[in-house]
Amino acid sequence: MAEHTRSSIVIAATPAEVMAVIADFEAYPAWTGEVKEVEVLGRGEAGRATEVRLLLDAGAIRDEHVLAYTWDGDREVSWTLVKSQMLRSLDGSYALAPVAGGTEVTYQLAVDVKIPMLGMIKRKAEKVIIDRALAGLKKRVETP
Questions:
Q1: Which whole-number Å values give the CA distances from 102 to 8, 128, 142, in the listed order?
Q2: Residue 24 belongs to a domain with what CATH number?
Q3: Average pLDDT over residues 7-29
Q4: What tens digit of pLDDT does each residue of 78-131 get?
Q5: Within 13 Å of residue 52, how many CA atoms lie on the same side as its CB?
Q6: Which superkingdom heads the taxonomic lineage of this protein's source (predicted)?
Q7: What is the residue range of 44's domain?
Q8: Dihedral sign, Cα of residue 98, residue 131, residue 71, residue 21
Q9: Has this prediction a pTM greater than 0.85?
Q10: For the chain, how many structural domains are there in total?
């Protein structure tokens, strides 16, 4: 990933428990505010999604895109854009590492939109996306 934004959070769960929530795409509309619809288009040998269609609605931004996923056990998942109406590229990853008290989750994201946007504004938008996603993931994993 070229220019990217990154943030981390510690979640009180094992890497396997955190990755199970990340991998459960069908449940995203229940706990992520922006994802309204999900369709898993392909699965790998381990049963995890390799390609997913997501319908996003974040107020001013509404987009449907397809992402391709690569999994490294319960250590990391990365994705790249296959197609989108509004995005030129979207590359991201969740890296999970066991730490005292749970799992440190590091989310890295690089987005390039088709409309011109200042780099500073783009990075701020990436930061908002990352912070919301990490907070939502933490709540989903830690709430029984």
A1: 13, 24, 10
A2: 3.30.530.20
A3: 97
A4: 999 999 988 888 899 999 999 999 999 999 998 877 766 555 555 667 677 778
A5: 23
A6: Bacteria
A7: 5-142
A8: positive
A9: yes
A10: 1
